[in-house]
Specification:
Strand content: 5-15%
Radius of gyration: 39 Å
Oligomer: single chain
Largest sheet: 8 strands, mixed
Number of helices: 25
């Protein structure tokens, strides 16, 4: 009985088997013309998306579409071509693409051509199709395509890049990136109109932003006319004194007083590898905002953030450098948590110096210092207030009034003071240091900034003997025989030729300090010394602490004491 039942269910001579192709054709046979072509394009797209390429190809062959239908005909042809690529008929797909080469919807066809050449393993031809697709796509819409062709260029970097077509340009860029930033900059000059030059790959931008190399031609922008001509001339003399001892590097000088853009254009036209300068802060800001494709070593610090197409370093002789270094040295010289007094001028420079000192001191675990801004006519009162003598005298007066009696009195300075830092010129420093002794603080260590090492130092040396200094090395060697601008010029030239080493974490021992590169900023450590009646005695830098000073007190819980 079971056999009879199964036999009855089996197909016989009069039974019709319905195939997937028949199912797809069923709805199409009831349509004609544009309606049929539109429905066919939809069905082919759905089959391709689901990976049923053989079925899609068979369906496209069973339902011909009139070429006169234009865009609908092109849609069906593209889906049929995609099906051919899906089944591995790459040459057939390319033949179909060739017939449609003049179609107005080239973007879609070029994508299919890229896939067909990928299937054949022809890397260059696939990149050529992708490059044509990129050229037809607006810059703001081809980010994915640019990323795709850049990856392909890196994978195919061993291919010949000797041609002048777009693919050769991409391959040449990949080869240059493997060689380093210098070769990439050479590529940018050789391929100025290439699409990659308009939108650089992100890793190329990063390579250029950190890729220092020893320059062969250095451009210098300095004020060589106008009110700053003296400053510029001194700096240039320092640069040339070092350049004369190393003729392997060429120097080309442009007058920054005529404008930054004009100077950059002049130096770029002469193919410099690196620019040193300018000096005024506003010109430094302007130069960085231009985002030129050249390494830069500016002679001042910028107060803006700007994108970079090449590595940049900023140097300068900011008074904050000495303040931070003095704070480090004074902290390393102490074993207790007491406060330093910071004597600074009562102006914008004093505010910058005190802010730098506070930051360095408290970051290393110190208790907030006493900040004492002075003016030319109130130094005695400022020192008395900072030491605590004024408060001691006030307590004595109050006690005498309370007891109605004359009391013997010796003022006492405050007990939480450990040391003193003075930022002043030589004459002012020589007035402030004796006041400390007058107000019972002559035993405190006194540190003086390099600003005191000026031409008046020998006139007031006796009043400063015994003070510790944070000085520039040249000041301890030949104070009477040079000047700070000349020495800055010397260091600028030497640094420009050493930035590749600095970028690797090395330090440069220069005439104006020990320079290190942190991000884009070149920072200085000064030379500690003690001022004597005859000259200077060098001091050893104490070893750095592995951890901040353990004071037992909250380091940053209170603002600095302002007097």
């Amino acid at each position: 009985m079971t056999a009879a039942l199964l036999g009855g269910c089996a197909s016989g001579p009069g039974t019709t088997v319905v195939t997937p192709l028949d199912t797809e054709l069923a709805s199409l046979t009831q349509l004609a013309g544009a309606e049929q072509a539109s429905q066919l394009a939809l069905q082919l797209g759905a089959l391709n998306r689901s990976g049923q390429f053989e079925l899609a190809l068979a369906l496209s062959q069973r339902v011909p579409v009139d070429a006169a239908l234009g865009p609908l005909y092109q849609q069906v042809e593209r889906q049929a071509t995609a099906a051919m690529i899906g089944v591995g008929d790459y040459n057939g797909a390319l033949a179909r693409i060739e017939r449609a080469s003049q179609a107005p919807d080239q973007l879609e066809w070029l994508g299919l051509e890229t896939q067909a050449y990928d299937g054949l393993g022809d890397q260059r031809a696939a990149m050529a199709a992708l490059a044509r697709l990129i050229e037809l796509t607006p810059d703001d819409a081809n980010g994915r395509l640019l990323g795709d062709i850049w990856v392909r260029a890196q994978l195919a970097s061993l291919l010949d890049a000797g041609g002048d077509d777009a693919v050769s340009g991409w391959l040449a860029l990949a080869q240059a990136a493997e060689a380093g930033a210098g070769d990439v900059r050479a590529w940018r000059k050789a391929w100025p109109d290439h699409r990659a030059n308009r939108v650089l790959p992100a890793d190329i931008q990063a390579l250029l932003a950190r890729g220092w190399a020893k320059p062969a031609r250095i451009g210098v922008i300095l004020p060589l006319s106008g009110p700053l001509v003296g400053v510029g001339s001194n700096l240039l003399d320092g640069i040339m004194s070092e350049q004369l001892s190393d003729r392997s590097t060429t120097v080309i000088v442009s007058d920054g007083s005529l404008g930054v853009e004009a100077a950059v254009a002049e130096l770029t036209a002469q193919s410099v590898d690196l620019i040193v300068g300018p000096l005024p802060k506003d010109q430094v800001n302007q130069l960085l905002a231009m985002a030129i494709d050249l390494p830069l070593l500016t002679l001042n610090y910028s107060d803006i953030e700007a994108d970079a197409l090449a590595p940049r370093a900023q140097m300068g002789l900011a008074p904050e450098d000495a303040a931070r270094d003095a704070a480090r040295l004074m902290m390393l010289d102490l074993d207790d948590p007491r406060r330093p007094i910071v004597l600074v001028p009562g102006d914008a420079t004093g505010e910058r110096v005190s802010a730098a000192y506070i930051s360095e001191w408290t970051d290393n675990g110190g208790v907030a210092p006493v900040i004492a801004p002075y003016l030319n006519d109130n130094q005695r009162q400022v020192v008395a207030d900072a030491i605590g003598i004024a408060a001691s005298q006030a307590r004595h007066s109050a006690l005498q009034r309370l007891l109605a009696a004359d009391l013997e009195f010796t003022p006492r300075r405050r007990a939480d003071i450990s040391s003193v830092y003075i930022y002043a010129n030589a004459v002012t420093a020589a007035q402030l240091k004796p006041l400390l002794a007058f107000y019972y603080a002559g035993d405190l260590p006194v540190w003086v900034a390099d600003a005191a090492l000026d031409r008046d130092l020998d006139l007031v040396r006796d009043d400063l003997v015994g003070a510790n200094l944070v000085a520039m090395p040249w000041q301890l060697d030949s104070l009477a025989d040079s000047n700070v601008l000349f020495e800055l010029g010397r260091d600028a030239w030497l640094l420009a030729n050493s930035l590749d080493s600095l970028a690797q974490g090395n330090a440069f021992d220069g005439r104006t300090g020990l320079w290190t590169l942190e991000s884009e900023r070149l920072t200085r450590a000064m030379s500690p010394a003690r001022l004597t009646a005859e000259g200077f005695t060098a001091l050893e830098r104490p070893p750095e602490r592995a951890e901040p000073l353990a004071t037992g007190l909250p380091a940053n819980s209170a603002p600095p004491l302002e007097l």
